[in-house]
Amino acid sequence: MASELRVNKINSRTGFGTITVSETGQDLVGVTTIQNLTTENTLVGAAASFTGNVQVGGVLTYEDVTNIDSVGIVTARDGVVVVGRGVSITAGGLNVTAGVTTFSDDVEFKTGGTTIALLDHSQSRLEFQDNMAISFGNHPDVEIAYSNGNDFSIVGQYNGSGDLVTGFRNSSGNILKSFNAVRSDGSAELYFSNSKKLETTNTGVTVTGTVAATAVTGDGSGLSNVPAATPTNSDIQVVYTVTANGASAYRFAGNGVVSTADNPDIFLTRGVKYRFVNNSGGSHPFQIRESAGGSAYSTGVTNNGASSGNIDFAPTFDSPSKLVYQCTSHGGMVGNIYMTGGVGRWIQQSIVTLQSGSSYEFTDIPADVNEVMIVFDGLSFASGSNEIEFLLGHSGGYNTSNYIISASYEPGGNYQKRTTSIRFNGIGSSSYFPTGRLHLWKPVHNNNWWVEGICYPWQTEGEYQHRVTGTAPSGGTLSKIKIQGSAGANFDNTGNGKIQLSYIRY
User: Fold this and answer.
1) In Å, what is the CA distance from 499 to each residue of 75, 135, 161, 316, 442?
2) What is the CA radius of gyration of the chain?
3) CB atoms < 10 A from the CB of 479, how many?
4) CB atoms within 10 A of CB 475
5) pTM of the full predicted structure?
6) Is-contact 389 484, C-beta < 8 A?
7) What average pLDDT score do residues 321-336 get?
């Protein structure tokens, strides 16, 4: 039979600790050391200290615990579940050294109390606030930024074929315009409103649509399959490529010129626009000149004298019959330019409105013209008793002798011989506003000009006809014509007078 000891209370020898045994259990006062403690019911105590391991087989419940103070590391075998306000870590941060950290709901990122990003569990997306950016790399190498002034996002997605397509998406979630695609074969594409406009290939670039450029370099010699276009006034119609044979000669390629010929004659047509592409090496400036060693010819010429690149020349219908091209650094690199075409066509030099003045001069008349036509209307003088006269001139001045002119008017049959100018007879009143024309033409056998002209005193009345006929020497090669009143009379603008000069070549 087992032995029993029945007591109500056990006191220690020092009196600091007691064990009280009652019907409900044991009450321990003081420090109690237990190697192994097994309990089937509730363990209740004001305070407990354990030097070894504490193992709880069931649920360890803290009813009114406000703080857990752990000096070492708290290890949970499975997980820690917080069902209240959450976990706040205020000091060294949260350090997860191993395993997977799982968040079952939203995750909010803050700095200085302000939310900067939100991992929205319900929307399955990471949201950044206004004026934030995502960067990749140290530089950063790639950055996606967003400002609150624009309601769009940048979208990049693979289309399933290894191609990266990027574009803009609006606030409704619709991709508005894809603007770029990088293909798996190495090509790249640019789009406008989902319509491809540019594609790179292994041989170059393919453009769909119109290419607008403020400037284009190169001579276009490598272009192929370019359809011929109807030339306009601004189009280059003929291209010559210019090279050099040392420092002694130019050579040309294009428009029927033998490419191995040194300083060949070039034949141009008036009204056609030409381009000379100077590929002579940069040390042979190409210049179109009036003559060998002479002045540069500027009419219709762009970039004249360029060491390289394009020199454009659009000969006008009054261009001289002969010019030259010449290197400005090597005088021996020189050749002739012969002008053709433009024959049988009247070229209008100018129309002028007379202001008050003593005379008016037409200058720069080409040397090779065959006919000149001067039309005038509403001429008037500041004083009466003056008549209209014309003087022919050359580089040395105006000729005032050797005219053989018959001047007359009808009705009346009055006749005057003129030897110092081409001068109409009988138009001498300040109330007249003469209207008429003067026609000059040059026979092929001499330098004299034949003259025929008609004039009416009033703009609106043809009762009186004033005529001049005869010959007029220019004293040299005709280059200018002066119109003035006889006896030094000044024109005025009472009649709003106008004068037009035109000429023609055969």
Assistant:
1) 111, 75, 76, 22, 22
2) 53
3) 18
4) 18
5) 0.39
6) yes
7) 95
